[in-house]
Amino acid sequence: LSLSEFDLIARHFAPMAAPGALSLLDDAAFLTPPQGHDLVLTKDMLVAGVHFFPDDSPRLIAMKALRVNLSDLAAKGAVPAAFLLGLALPGDINNEWLASFAEGLDADSAAYSISLHGGDTVRTSGPLTVSITAIGTVPSGRMVRRLAMNPGDAIYVTGSIGGASIGLQLRLNPEAAWAKALSPTARDFLLDAYLLPRPRNSHSAAVLAYANACMDVSDGFIGDLTKMLAGSGCGAAIALHAVPHSPAVNEAIASEPALLATALTGGDDYELLIAVPPEHALAFEAALPGQRLARIGTAGSAADGIRFFGHDGAERHFAQGSFRHF
Amino acid sequence: LSLSEFDLIARHFAPMAAPGALSLLDDAAFLTPPQGHDLVLTKDMLVAGVHFFPDDSPRLIAMKALRVNLSDLAAKGAVPAAFLLGLALPGDINNEWLASFAEGLDADSAAYSISLHGGDTVRTSGPLTVSITAIGTVPSGRMVRRLAMNPGDAIYVTGSIGGASIGLQLRLNPEAAWAKALSPTARDFLLDAYLLPRPRNSHSAAVLAYANACMDVSDGFIGDLTKMLAGSGCGAAIALHAVPHSPAVNEAIASEPALLATALTGGDDYELLIAVPPEHALAFEAALPGQRLARIGTAGSAADGIRFFGHDGAERHFAQGSFRHF
Q1: What is the pLDDT along chain B (326 residues), one digit of tens a residue?
Q2: Of A93, B5, B13, B92, which residue is most buried, by most CB within 10 angstroms?
């Protein structure tokens, strides 16, 4: 890479910076928070070879890095406002790569109404690392908590579960029998689901208005739901056949039944788990017309335990509930 | 490392988290900004082998990572409020290392009144990487800009210049004649100056009250001052003999005169360059009684150029004004 840090920022990132970022020429940026609001702060760090493949499209890497943070804001009922970008670049990154990365970031920053407010670009001897801090806003005192479910709450999940984790298996084992048996449509869908999360920011106003608790499913449906219930002091009976899967996921599972556990425990879904008090359930559903939203169970008391049931009514157990880095 | 990410955070970082960080068990944290204030946002990323030595004390690595961000807040006249910590850990990091890192972070977070509001911990195949986002507050519309000097402004620098960059040379070339000739006191001072910045947050109220412009000197005194003047459309005549050096730096320069250029162009000083309108210069100085503050020149018109003069009155030129990563 022949650019200085100064030129790299001026060329690739300054054009998309917010007014408060002063063309990224200052030590810091400023942000005027809307009156009567709290800020919601989140930070996700992605490392090549851990969270994405080093040869993934730089445009999609940028979008994924921003979208995993947007998903956290959606889960808290927050409206996206600003983000900061930390980028540790290995020596083989060139200007073409950076231009494509910046283009992806710019497109999503516009699509989700979140503005670049600064950051830092450094050299690393290791893998490409993208560290994004995202800031959103909620009315004061209203951030939706993760561990605030109550017994009786209706439990919902958005979208569909398992596409990303089966997409990852497809990347890792393209020669598996089930992988070779997939239709081209299903294959494309699964690969795309892994590469590009669809954070549910369109659901966040309804979450803010009606939810007792919410979290985004990033480390696996079973593990994240268990964490949310246990941390809230709740039990639940969850109907696994009510958990939505895409046609592509169903196609893969039909060919290889062991992939059902992959779908339910694998990471990277970026869907929302939402707990809504029963008296608000209808209004909540009405606030999201035409959106894919599945009611998968009802929270109970901790004494009931957290139990998962299959379509045959038999209880299911999972050896490892969620994705672990360490 | 045998801990899960969950256990690692619960053990090392949750005890120091702010109330709004919800024991680091949620997707995000909240922060209630003081009414009538803007937020000041900054992010600095540090990579082992680039910004610190991999075998530096984890306590000091944590403090440096936080302090370089605190220095940016000081330069903007901002009061520290919150920070988020991104940590990419290589496989050889153990619990003892993490405990020491967390202890350093906790100590500085208390010393500078800035609270941990979340973050992310991931695994990396590369060097340890610390990415901190810091958030401060200023009265609305009052963030002190970097490129807002005016002709006539008095130019000040805090503290002393060159200790960190000569300290780095001492780490890299311990067998150099000048290095071996240093007194033990000077050696300790220089090594410490490189390891641990002293951000000038105690000066930020005076900067907010009186400065037209301010930046922190992180990439080298000559280069940073040149950037600040040129970006403001100003020239200046700078008296290099007025630039303060510590006794240890003077001792090193006396033994090896080439180190004067190292001191003036090397990085990691984390002092402040402050431009104050002439009518406020006395009040500004009076607001910082007993603080080390040197007046090093006066801003002029761009047509005058940016010129540096030595104690003999001769103009000095520097081949490379500042530290470059790329």
Answers
A1: 667 888 889 999 999 999 999 999 999 999 999 999 999 999 999 999 999 999 999 999 999 999 999 999 999 999 999 999 999 999 999 999 999 999 999 999 999 999 999 999 999 999 999 999 999 999 999 999 999 999 999 999 999 999 999 999 999 999 999 999 999 999 999 999 999 999 999 999 999 999 999 999 999 999 999 999 999 999 999 999 999 999 999 999 999 999 999 999 999 999 999 999 999 999 999 999 888 899 999 999 999 899 999 989 999 998 765 544 44
A2: B13
Spell out which residues of chain A touch residue B141, defining contact as CB-CB under 8 Å. Answer: 32
Tell me whether B14 touches chain A (CB under 8 Å).
no
Cα–Cα separations (whole angstroms), residue A219 to A112, A224, B3, B302, B314: 23, 6, 16, 56, 64
* Mutation choice for B interface testing from A23, A85, A133 by most B CBs within 10 A: A133
- For residues A168, A169, A172, A175, the Cα torsion angle rounded to the nearest 10 degrees is -140
Instruction: With a threshold of 0.95, tell me whether the complex ipTM lies above it.
Output: no
Distance (Å) from the C-alpha of residue A1 to the closest C-alpha of chain B? 7
CB contact under 8 A, B126 and A47: yes
Q: What is the DSSP pairing of strand A234-239 with strand A306-309? A: parallel
- Return the amino acid letter for A211: A
Residue with tokens 């984790």: A165
Q: Are A131 and A47 in contact (CB under 8 A)?
A: no
